[in-house]
Amino acid sequence: MPRVFSGIQPTGDPHIGNYFGAMKNYVRLGEEYGKNSIYCVVDLHAPTNPGAYDPARLAARTFEMALANMAVGLDPQKVIFFAQSHVPEHTELAWLFTVITPVGELERMTQYKDKAGQLESVPAGLLMYPVLQAADILLYKADTVPVGEDQVQHIELTREIARKFNHAFGETFPEPRAVLAKDALRIPGVDGQGKMSKSKGNTLGILEGFDSIWQKLRVAPTDPARVRRTDPGDPDKCLIGDYHKLFSDLPTIETVYVGCRTAGIGCVDCKKMLMEGIRRELTPVQERAAELQADPDRVRDALATGAREAREIAVPVMEEARERVGF
Ligand code: ADP
Ligand code: NA
C-alpha cells in the first residue's frame, strides 16, 4: 500500500482555498489509506519565513492549524497526525541529507530564489528548507506526496536526494512522487485579483464568522460587463459563479447560471444564494471547531499520540540511515 505524507504549514486561520485545495483532500486520503497517511504540522519550517513567523505565536499557530484540520474532519484515530518538532528525527535525517545535497541545486529552487531575493541577509535555513522537507517525507519512506504545483520542484529534489543517498550508502529510501490535486483547484480570492492567499489578504476563512464573510461577499466584484441589474452577465467570468460551483447544489448552480445569463436574478440575490451554500458547508466545521476549542486537550492529546505513532516509524528508519552512513 502506498504511504502518503503531507506537510501542513502552521499558518493558522485556514481559508477556503486551503480547504478545497488541501484540507478536504487530506480527509479523503485518510479515509483511503488510514495509518498509511501521515500528516505533519511542519512547525520547524516556520522560522525560515521571518515575515510570517512570531516566536510568541508559533505554538498557538500549530495548535490552531491542528484544530482546524480536525474540525474539517481529519480523524487522528484513523491517520497519523502530529507536529514536526515533536519528532526530533526530522532534523537529524535532514543533517545527513545536507552532506549529499549540492548547494547549487538548492540555489536553483524557485521558491528559494523568490524568498531570498526579498531579503538583505539570507538565513542558511531558507536554503536548507527543501532538505528538511526531503527528510520529512523520507523519514517515513513515503512514496506519495500530495502537493500544490509550487512544490513539485521540491519533490523532484527529494527524489534526487533519495537517489544520491541510496547510491552513496546503499538502497534505503523510495523515490516519492508528487501527486497534484486532480482538478488542480485554484480558488480565486474575494478581491477578484487572482488566487486566494493569506499574503494577499483576499481570503474567506473557514472559521470566519458568517457576518464577516457576508460583508466581504457583498462588496466582491462580479462580471464587470454587468453594469445594471437588467444587463445579462456571464457567470463563468464571475468570482461568485466560481464559488457557487464549490458551495452550491446543482439546482442552485443551474438557477444562478441561467438567472445571470438572462438577467433574471441580480448579483445581490446570487450572492445571498451563495451565502446559503457557505453556511451549509461551513456550519458543521465551525461547530466542531467550537467543540475542540472548548476542549483543547483533545487536540493536544491527538498530537501527542500522533508523535508516538510517527516515531514508531521514524526511529527505526533513522537508525537504519545512521548505520548506513557509518555511525
Ligand atoms: P497561502 O497561499 O494562503 O499561504 P499555503 O501556501 O499555506 O496558503 O497553502 C496551503 C495549502 O493550501 C497548499 O496545499 C496549497 O496548495 C493550498 N492552497 C492555498 N491557496 C489555495 C488556493 N487559492 N486554491 C487552491 N488551493 C490552495
Ligand atoms: Na502560498
UniProtKB/TrEMBL annotation:
Q: Which reaction does it catalyse?
A: tRNA(Trp) + L-tryptophan + ATP = L-tryptophyl-tRNA(Trp) + AMP + diphosphate + H(+)
Q: So what EC number does this one have?
A: 6.1.1.2
Binding site residues for L-tryptophan = D136
Location of this chain's protein in the cell: Cytoplasm
Q: Name the source's superkingdom.
A: Bacteria
Q: Where does ATP bind?
A: Q9, P10, T11, G17, N18, G148, E149, D150, I187, K195, M196, S197, K198, S199
**What does the similarity note say?**
Belongs to the class-I aminoacyl-tRNA synthetase family.
Q: Where can the motif 'KMSKS' region be found?
A: 195-199
Ranges annotated as spanning the membrane: none
Hydrolase listed as a keyword: no
PANTHER family according to UniProt: TRYPTOPHAN--TRNA LIGASE, MITOCHONDRIAL (PTHR43766:SF1)
What is the name of the protein in this document?
A: Tryptophan--tRNA ligase
What keywords would UniProt list here? Aminoacyl-tRNA synthetase, ATP-binding, Cytoplasm, Ligase, Nucleotide-binding, Protein biosynthesis
What CDD domains does this protein map onto?
TrpRS_core
The signal peptide here is: none
GO molecular function terms attached to this record: ligase activity
- Cross-referenced NCBIfam families, in alphabetical order? trpS (TIGR00233)
Q: Name one Pfam family in it.
A: tRNA-synt_1b
Q: What is its main location?
A: cytoplasm
Complex formation:
Homodimer.
Does the UniProt entry include the keyword Nucleotide-binding?
yes
Q: Which organism is it from?
A: Deinococcus aetherius
Q: Where is this motif: 'HIGH' region?
A: 10-18
Provide the function of this protein: Catalyzes the attachment of tryptophan to tRNA(Trp).
